[in-house]
Amino acid sequence: MLRCIRLDCSQTTANYRKPMSVQVAESYRLPPYSTVIGMVHNLCGFTEYHPLRISVQGEYQTIIGDMYTRYFFGTTYDATRHQCYTENEDGKKDGITRGLGTNELLVDLKLVLHILPEEKDYQAVLAGLKKPAIYPSLGRYEDLMRIDKLAEVELEPTDSPDLEYDAYVPESLFSKSEGDIVCPRYLLNKVYRVDPKRGCREWERVAAFYIAKGSELIFDEQIAYREKGGKTGVFLA
Questions:
Q1: Separation of alpha carbons 40 and 161, rounded Å
Q2: How far is 160 from 109, CA to CA, in rounded Å?
Q3: pLDDT over threshold 70, residue 175
Q4: CA atoms of 60 and 45, how far apart (whole Å)
Q5: Residues 6+ positions from 181 with CB-CB distance below 8 Å
């Protein structure tokens, strides 16, 4: 039996940006694992990585577009084409161009997040979520999140979990015989490490299906979880 923390949350609007979207800041339909893990670390005041397993489920009502100001960097300053500039350490000027961009915003979100820390971190994470160090936000910094309910739940293995909400279901839970599942498949960022030679992030990614609520899931073995005493599926990654 596993003990984990369940958060029932809501957001008025949110953008969980897809990394490769440029002209339009497209949004995942649910927050990626890395976004949730980053939020938990911020709320708990952690300054280094604490391993977490996460299950993400939820729903939204509609999608709208929202304009925002974009800034373009990386060219030598030219007073005839740049509105402003910034100075580098060597005294040279980089031009900055202001323009318009479009955000894809999800509206009226309800999220169900299951968070499974390591046993040594469990009480620290629970305390941090009960009394956050900062106001919760998920997605962009301005995408405020309200925690409607926090509960400790026990999980038990199952081969037929219920989908009460749309959910990310890790591909690793499915057998090869179920490889023709007709639904979106994502490679979602989870955690990163910094390459000491290149100084850039290298991401650990999780392949997961985005499966709509009400879908029937039956596994060959009891490799998924549900909340004890109920059928609510929990798909930890």
A1: 26
A2: 26
A3: no
A4: 29
A5: 174, 209, 211
pLDDT digits (tens, 9 = 90+) for 54-110: 999 999 999 999 888 888 887 888 888 888 888 887 878 888 888 888 999 999 999
Measured between alpha carbons, how far is 233 from 237 in angstroms, rounded to an integer? Answer: 13
Helical H segments across the chain, by residue range: 33-44, 122-130
125 burial level (CB within 10 Å; 0-12, 13-18, 19+) = buried
d(CA 163, CA 147): 21
CATH number belonging to the domain at 2-66+102-234, selected among 3.30.43.10, 3.30.70.2660, 1.10.10.2910, 3.20.20.450: 3.30.70.2660
Q: Residue 177 — very low, low, confident or very high, per pLDDT cuts 50/70/90?
A: very low
Which residues are bridge partners to 211 per DSSP? Answer: 167
d(CA 84, CA 95): 6
| All structural domains of the chain with their residue ranges | 2-66+102-234, 67-101
Inter-CA distances, 74 with 19, 88, 91, 96, 217, Å: 19, 11, 15, 8, 49
Residue in 220, 133, 223 with CA at minimum distance from that of residue 169: 223
